[in-house]
Design goal:
eleven-stranded mixed β-sheet, globular, 5 helices, disordered C terminus, 206 residues
């Protein structure tokens, strides 16, 4: 969650969406070669980089992405639509990272034994990593994302390199005994002409 004034200083392109969607905004910005993007309700902005200042706690972005969505839309990031004078910022994974994610919609990390990222169904119940801290509160991906925001004023840990699980495990405070949710997920949205399945990566705490 970043202040609007800080986001505006690094915004390169803006776009008015016909419904709020992190996935749609990602597609618009990715087409213009921008990997960082922000959402404030229907407003989508493409950024050259994450702002160096203006970071706010998760509670500063309290708007939900509500609207008349096609039934096929998953709206994974439904509670991440910015706030009053704030934006939720996201970052797309690199081509190499995206090639590693091909099946399920949500991603967890395992740090004990075989350190690796795991694609899982979003309704599975496992622990959560808010910012870089492990919490042994077990729930599905959507609920753990909401709990990070409500209880800890933060987000699921999303600023990770999907090609290097060891480095990500080293950053986590309190080593997970089993798989734990990260702030990385795919979102399905329906555009004007076609159905698009988009991989989106949280990066609130860069």
């Amino acid at each position: 969650c970043y202040e609007e004034t800080a986001v505006n200083t690094v915004t390169k392109k803006s776009y008015e969406m016909y419904f709020p969607s992190a996935g749609l905004c990602q597609e618009v910005c990715f087409a213009s070669s921008y990997s960082v993007f922000g959402v404030q309700l229907k407003k989508c902005v493409c950024l050259e980089q994450i702002p160096g200042q203006g970071s706010r706690g998760a509670n500063g972005c309290s708007l939900s992405c509500s609207g008349k969505y096609p039934s096929e839309t998953s709206n994974t990031f439904q509670n991440e639509c910015g706030g009053h004078q704030t934006y939720n910022l996201f970052k797309s994974g690199s081509e190499m990272e995206n090639s590693l994610l091909t099946t399920e919609a949500c991603v967890s990390i395992q740090c004990q034994g075989d350190q690796r990222f795991i694609e899982q169904e979003c309704n599975e119940v496992i622990a959560q990593i808010c910012n870089q801290t492990l919490y042994t509160e077990y729930n599905n991906w959507q609920s753990t994302s909401a709990e990070c925001k409500l209880k800890h004023n933060s987000y699921l840990f999303g600023d990770v390199d999907l090609t290097d699980p060891r480095r990500s495990c080293d950053l986590i405070q309190g080593q997970p005994q089993g798989p734990s949710w990260l702030g990385i997920a795919k979102e399905l949205y329906v555009s004007t002409y076609e159905c698009n399945f988009v991989n989106t990566k949280f990066s609130h705490d860069v």
